[in-house]
Amino acid sequence: MTKKELATGEYTVLAMLRLGPKHGYEMARFMERDGLPDVIRLEQSLLYANLKNLERRGLIEGCEQRTGAHPPRRVFHLTPAGEVLVDAWLRAPSERMRDVRLDFLLKLYFLHQIDAAAEATLLEQQIAACQVYRSRVVAQIAHTEPTGFQKLVLGSKASAAIATLSWLQEYADELIATKHDIEVTA
Questions:
Q1: For residue 57, what is the domain's CATH number?
Q2: In terms of domains, do 33 and 52 share one?
Q3: Are residues 70 and 55 in the same domain?
Q4: Are residues 119 and 47 part of one domain?
Q5: Which domain holds residue 83?
Q6: What is the pTM of this model?
Q7: What is the residue-wise DSSP string for 104-138?
Q8: Domain boundary among 42, 68, 90
Q9: Up-side HSE of residue 95: CA atoms within 13 Å toward CB?
Q10: Pick from 28, 63, 90: which residue ends a domain?
Q11: What is the rounded CA–CA span in Å between residue 33 and residue 23?
């Protein structure tokens, strides 16, 4: 495999396969559920292009399976390298704010199904990464001229970081409350 990082759609395909082997049409249907279309649109043509690329890179393997009189389907599964890569991606916070609303939501969605206990850890790490980002932007603001476009851009980044942190903290509080409710009723 090359060092080139995968696109979010490719990681999404790996994460789907982390849940178990699937054929392309099954993956396309999977992407239509649970609000996933509000996070990422993975059109069928792009899905199949991602499958071809991931197979070429040695991250997945496909084999034809026949069921009755139906045409054969190509069922894909992760290779060990694909499993290692997707597990690392799922457990790593998003470093860039613009990736939080896409990658991070996908990571939470799949991680909840694969290893729900790791969800809180990822959330804590994401909050910490956003705090570091916000601090870095605030420091940059302090060193820019009081007017000008750069200050406007940095202010926008700081506001986005603050809003993202607020949203993440709300979700963290919700997770804690849910966990407490489960422990009380158990």
A1: 1.10.10.10
A2: yes
A3: yes
A4: no
A5: 8-90
A6: 0.87
A7: IHHHHHHHHHH-THHHHHHHHHHHHHHHHHHHHHH
A8: 90
A9: 1
A10: 90
A11: 16
Q: Are residues 86 and 101 in the same domain?
A: no
Give 61's strand partners.
77
Tokens of 67: 């069921």
Distant-in-sequence, close-in-space partners of 152: CB < 8 Å, separation ≥ 6: none
The single residue listed with the structure tokens 């054929």 is: 23
Residue 137 lies in a domain: yes
CA distances (Å), origin 27, targets 17, 124, 141: 9, 30, 44
Q: What does DSSP say about strands 60-65 and 22-23: parallel, antiparallel, or unpaired?
A: unpaired
**pLDDT per residue of the chain (186 residues) written in tens, 0 to 9:** 444 689 999 999 999 999 999 999 999 999 998 889 999 999 999 999 999 999 999 999 999 988 888 888 999 999 999 999 999 999 999 988 888 989 999 999 999 999 999 999 999 999 999 999 999 999 999 888 877 898 899 999 999 999 999 999 999 999 888 765 555 555
CA distances for 87 relative to 8, 82, 126, angstroms: 14, 8, 16
Q: Is residue 75 assigned to a domain?
A: yes
- Residue 60 backbone phi and psi in degrees, to 5: -140, 160
Total number of domains in the chain = 2
Spatial CA neighbour of 171 closest among 115, 119, 117, 103: 119
